[in-house]
Design brief:
The chain is mainly alpha-helical. It has one domain: Cytochrome Bc1 Complex, Chain D, domain 2 (Orthogonal Bundle), CATH 1.10.760.10. Helices cover about 45% and strands about 5% of the residues. The chain has helices at about 1-20, 45-60, 60-65, 100-110, 125-140, 145-150, and strands at about 30-35, 40-45. A two-stranded antiparallel ribbon has the order 1-2. It is globular and about 50 Å long.
Length: about 160
Amino acid sequence: MIMRYLLLIISVVLVLGCEESASPDKSSATFSFFEGGEVMAVRKFDPAQIERGEVVYRANCVGCHGQNGEATPDWRKPGENGKYPPPPLNGTAHTWHHSTEVLKRTILKGGPPEFGSMPAWEGKLTEQQVDDVIVWIKSLWPDEVYDVWYKNFEDKQ
């Protein structure tokens, strides 16, 4: 009888231990196994927030960053004024190389004036609108890009 209880306790401990390690609780992602056993972050964004972010983006950002965050083909070449055009936000440029905090600060305070013409949106957009736009931008990134970004930034917080 004691042996039976001991086996039951060991089984419960093993099952609980496996469940905890297989599904880390993250606020903006879960992890899934992909082909070859690779573990990748999978977004858990609120669809309503993505929709709100898209509305704000289309009203304020399209003129510079493009309809779907694609920007202009020559975004890597400085213009006649020596400043760079707005970069893509869809995962094909460097946006995903920055933490959420840096992205938010750039939107609110503007970009470095010596490099580009990103205006400051502080006082024009609410912090919630900025957060919504950032989530919409992240929703554009390919899975592989989001995975690298998440593991470099969000997973560290």
